[in-house]
Amino acid sequence: DTSMTEISTGIYAYTFDDPADGLTYQYSTEFVYGGETYHMVANIAGGSDQSDNLYDLTPQIRTLVEGDITDNFIKQRIREMFQDFCIRTEAWRTKLDAVTSVADQKEYTLAATVSSTTYLANILRVKDVLYDTDETQLTFDEVSSDGLTLTLTSATAEAGNDIVADVILIPKETLSQTESWILDRWGKAVVYGVVWDLKSMSGRPWSDPRGADKYWGIYLDRVADAKREQHTKRGPGNSLRVASRAFV
Prior knowledge:
This protein is of the alpha+beta class. The chain has 4 helices and 13 strands. The longest helix has 25 residues, at 209-233.
């Protein structure tokens, strides 16, 4: 029952102070448009200690693994395990930067919006957004092999609208930074996966095969949680696989 502040046409905001760092908030909104009432529930990460650097997980791993092991080696395993987690769960979902619609055009290029350190693994939905207040879901027939050029089923009728794609991203093994929300939500899963990986190595000072099994089980539990969470978020629309997935 709290009214939001109108910033501009169709843009409203509500501001509050974080009671503590590192929290994630669930919020719900109710709005009326065209005489119809709509509701939306979503999550947002807050707090000043949010990190987007995968390497910030290194100290947590060191507390669980004993032995002479270099930071560079741990960082390599973090990158690989984060890729494995994203492949297994498809948890890294994001909205690409909008491209501007052109009247009577079917093909749109997303190349400028995809990072060179990620693969575009799946397009969940494509929307035609007008003034940030109204949106129409678009269907598409084709996507290029690199996932960067999209061909809509029907040409867009209006020019000047935002064409927005919701996608699933898979990191390349060179990626060291991600969005802070996914690291905050699933960083601990990556930690457990790396601990399993290190302890299961044979002939190393930090080897602990028996102890490794425990962390492998925890990692798989976190993977299952993430997959279940993504399943509940799936909405309508055509989903098109655009890149083959090679499991690590």
